[in-house]
Predict the 3D structure of the following.
Amino acid sequence: MKAARFHDRNDIRIEDIPEPELKPGTVAIDVAWCGICGTDLHEFLEGPIFVPPEGHPHPISGESAPVTMGHEFSGTITSLGEGVTDLEVGQNIVVEPLIIGDDVDTSIGQDYQLSKDMNFIGLGGGGGGLSEKIVVQRRWVHPIGDIPLDQAALIEPLSVAHHAVVRSGAKPGQVAIVGGAGPIGLLTAAVLKAEGLTVYISELSEARKKMALSTGVADEVLDPREGDVAEKVRERTNGQGADLGFECSSVPVVLDMLLDAVRPGAVIVNVSVWGHKPEVDMPKLVLKEIDLRGTIGYSGDHPSTIELVRSGKIDLAPFITKRIGLDELVSGGFDELINNNEHHVKIIVDPRA
């Protein structure tokens, strides 16, 4: 089968590899669509990061570069391994793409995403969605009902956003400021709106500003070039500031803005993955008693996220900005997101095209 394989920085190849083997307790899936994630771009430009370098296999997957990429994907079940009795061949599904130890409890309420040596299918091994087929453990498979398969490829990043919102303790009626209207920023705003919050987004890009407003995920988009964003947030909150802040840009000035824009005692959740260590305005954090929280991945978020989409509270269709085949992955996907990223939210890939 065809698969996109990460060999090294700036070296992703479309190769023919053996189809994965169905084993007891696993599910075989024909991949329908796979999104290109910002993490994939970081691997391409700066990696290996999550990808285990060649000769240094991951302690759980046992794999090292080259590995098959892709962790935001949807598909259809083609076969069930021995012992899997609660799914059906032909069901459309998404995969929660985690690599964790077999002995880790993945029941609801467990922080299994924080377990030792956690990694992601499509980065740390285990196959990936940028291939025609994949086999994964039953526990990672989530049926999606009648959600279209192209939109379902965005369930994974939406689950990242959902987990960040849960981490924040957000409540209906509160006010949130989101720093950055890239894919995760927009999806975080979508979850916040679905949960009944007022949402402001800080963003420079005209295309992304339009996307935030046209999709209805922001009540207002504030452009830093047109005045002090933090001051504008205070003006709109009777001088208090926002209840919640979400850092979705990996840009130090955005984190500074959030520390300024939230009220005393507020919560800021860092959602983005940083490629460097930023300076943090610790005096402001201390004097305002701000709670700065990290977040990674998800734990038990997929069912709730799927329900938000299935119920119509979140429409993922507008966030798909391009569809390509696997052979176009670098030229029509990675290069486009690197050089023309402000005009795209999510590029999805058909591995069979």
